[in-house]
Specification:
The protein has 423 residues and is mainly α. It is built from 19 helices and no strands.
Length: 423
């Protein structure tokens, strides 16, 4: 009797793993997000050229650190009033049309200031008017633009899409200021604003083909703007995670950006002796850090410990500020500004993702506008930074700003466990 034939057991070798996909650009597979990011690229190019030139003009016209802080801070005042209106409009109206209308407005403003500079009629009050009106446009546009990112991708791609949106902004933060500084030195400031106006034409060209998925409009369209905004406030107050996320967002707006970007023209001139070219280089360094930070966040995919990541971002920025305040060598100062930009982007990308992951679409623009109201604190921070720089010098002002940021984020983290646990 022959031996029974042996049954060959099925292979136990595990299936081959597919090569891990690079997550950094995963959300770009969505066509309409690519259009939106293209628009962000062009509008941010104009924005950074504008900010450097306005800061340089303010200091060149007045030789006053206080006036630089005041002019740079004026741009953020409208976020306290026009921002909430923009959030309500974004939940009531076609978000794409609002985005396009704001770009046309900014193009007209840039052309107007460019003309005044070209004919040598620009005065300090023109800078205040320009930054104020530009701030109105940005405060209406920003909550709408953030909401559109969430409309164009599924939830699993949201963190990546928001990070790439920030990357599109920060790439120009790295390039635009250096270009602005060179143009100021060799072509004059008017050229910068003519160039800025063409950037907004680019925004319109890439946004027009974008298709936004249809959405259901809530009962918000049947009540007043004030009632709509009040409804958004009520939603924020009852959502246990959203409120602390909005509170912690105030810290960088008060003590990081105003104390680094806001008085950077003063620090560059009085401490580093960098001139207009050095100022552009320093602004660009912060942008390079921001790009690296957004790439890190985009590569994390749907990272779970977002709350700890955002707390680390604010702490890292404040610590880097304290070290930066003692720098007298421009390349090392630029390296610290890059680290501040990186840390700030870790915070903002994580915070934005958490908020947009929680908020339903019918409240999305209103909550985004409340989040962006923290920009309205920038004038207060800029005035504080400018005053401290005027009284005690720019290094002391930056040191105090960094110390305040680190202290406050520690207090907020201890008080709100929801932030530490946020995923």
């Amino acid at each position: 009797m022959g031996q029974p034939s042996k049954t060959i057991p099925p292979t136990t070798e595990p299936p081959r793993r597919r090569s891990v996909n690079i997550r950094t650009f995963s959300s770009l597979r969505h066509r309409d997000l690519r259009f939106l990011l293209g628009g962000t690229f062009f509008m941010s190019a104009g924005n950074w050229i504008q900010q450097v030139t306005v800061g340089w003009l303010a200091y060149d016209m007045t030789q006053s650190a206080f006036m630089v802080g005041a002019v740079m801070g004026t741009r953020s005042v409208p976020f306290l009033v026009a921002g909430p209106i923009g959030g309500v409009l974004g939940d009531r109206m076609d978000r794409k049309r609002i985005l396009m209308a704001t770009q046309v407005a900014q193009m007209v403003l840039a052309l107007s200031l460019a003309t005044l500079l070209a004919i040598d009629r620009a005065q300090v009050w023109h800078l205040f008017a320009f930054t104020l009106l530009t701030g109105v446009s940005w405060s209406i546009m920003n909550p709408v633009r953030m909401s559109l990112v969430a409309n164009l991708v599924p939830k699993e791609d949201l963190m990546n899409a928001l990070a790439l949106n920030s990357a599109a902004f920060n790439i120009n933060r790295a390039i635009g200021p250096a270009l602005a500084g060179l143009l100021i030195a060799y072509a004059g400031p008017a050229t910068n604003f003519f160039l800025q106006s063409t950037m907004y034409v680019g925004v319109l060209a890439v946004v027009i083909p974008m298709t936004v998925p249809p959405r259901e409009y809530s009962a918000a369209t049947e009540t007043s703007v004030l009632s709509n905004f009040t409804e958004g406030i009520r939603y924020v107050r009852k959502e246990r995670t959203i409120l602390p996320l909005l509170i912690v967002a105030m810290i960088p707006s008060l003590f990081v950006m105003p104390f680094t970007q806001g008085i950077l023209p003063v620090f560059s001139e009085e401490v580093l002796q960098g001139g207009s070219e050095g100022l552009g280089f320093l602004y660009s360094a912060g942008g390079i850090g921001g790009v690296v930070g957004t790439i890190i966040v985009a590569s994390l995919g749907n990272f779970q410990r977002k709350g700890l990541l955002l707390l680390a971002g604010v702490t890292g920025a404040g610590t880097a500020m304290m070290i930066y305040s003692q720098m007298t060598w421009l390349p090392l100062a630029a390296l610290l500004l890059a680290l501040i930009g990186l840390s700030d982007m870790l915070f903002r990308s994580s915070n934005n993702t958490l908020i947009h992951s929680i908020v339903p679409d019918q409240y999305r623009s209103r909550v985004a506008s409340i989040l962006l109201m923290d920009n309205g604190l920038v004038p207060l921070g800029s005035l504080l930074a400018g005053t401290l720089a005027q009284l005690y010098g720019a290094p002391v002002a930056v040191l105090l700003g960094g110390a305040a940021a680190v202290t406050l984020v520690g207090l907020v983290a201890a008080r709100f466990s929801a932030i530490r646990q946020a995923r």
